[in-house]
Amino acid sequence: MAIPFSGRGGSGGGFRGGRDGGRGRGRGAFSGGRGRGSAMKRDGGRGGGRGGGRGGGRGRGRGGMKGGSKVVVEPHRHEGVFIAKGKEDALVTKNLVPGDSVYNEKRISVQNEDGTKVEYRVWNPFRSKLAAAILGGVDEIWIKPGARVLYLGAASGTTVSHVSDLIGPTGVVYAVEFSNRSGRDLVNMAKKRTNVIPIIEDARHPAKYRMLVGIVDVIFSDVAQPDQARILALNASYFLKAEGHFVISIKVGFFGYREGK
């Protein structure tokens, strides 16, 4: 699955562009692919971005979104993702480490009908391409509870932390990042999240970390390099299971367009 993004990016759904949000909505189709030898598919890019999925209960609680206003949390159609409905709707994930914020994101504490409390973290689509794709109506992300994920281009771990929430304690995310500076933040985040395995290495050379990564269900690639498709394919040849899937984020400039041509 490819996620084309322009530099201005942004997405609809309960978030409005503030100072750090940027204007405009990213365009482009979403395409899907399977691992090892199967052809890339094209999916319809529209539809279903906001919907709450079936099943699951509703929770009501206070805090997090707008100064103590009541919030209802409903499951999104993508398993492991939720929508917090209050004065403003927001995409959220269930916090794997209650009480902890990774990048100063808002947290919402919700009391269920049985009296138990659950904490959710707001997933900002202006800081995460995967969140923007979900709100934009992407058909499938293949990242779900219990999944084994290889994340290429993990940066400081903003999106990785939400993938950690999404897959839960039974899943694992191998987070590869080349930059030592971003890698330090990634490692610090992983100290509290036992399902995150940080790997500070160049994704162009998967042989260097082949002993650290097991066979995975899905690869998410956000390396922002002109040869990122080759990088993903190389990693897939090492780690992606047969009939596995991938999601790739592609900047518009990498499609080969040139001004005046």
TrEMBL record:
Coarse class of the protein's main subcellular location: nucleus
Q: Does the keyword Ribonucleoprotein apply?
A: yes
Name the GO cellular-component terms: box C/D methylation guide snoRNP complex; small-subunit processome
* Membrane-crossing residue ranges in chain numbering: none
GO molecular function terms attached to this record: histone H2AQ104 methyltransferase activity; RNA binding; rRNA methyltransferase activity
UniProt-annotated location(s): Nucleus, Nucleolus
Protein name stated in the entry? Fibrillarin
UniProt family annotation: Belongs to the methyltransferase superfamily. Fibrillarin family.
The protein's matches in InterPro entries, at most eight in alphabetical order, are given as: Fibrillarin (IPR000692), Fibrillarin_CS (IPR020813), SAM-dependent_MTases_sf (IPR029063)
Here the segments flagged for biased composition (Gly residues) are 7-16, 27-36, 46-56
Swiss-Prot/TrEMBL keywords: Methyltransferase, Nucleus, Ribonucleoprotein, RNA-binding, rRNA processing, S-adenosyl-L-methionine, Transferase
The protein's matches in NCBIfam families, at most eight in alphabetical order, are given as: PRK04266.1-2 (NF003276)
A biological process (GO) of this protein is: box C/D sno(s)RNA 3'-end processing
Q: Where is this region: Disordered?
A: 1-70
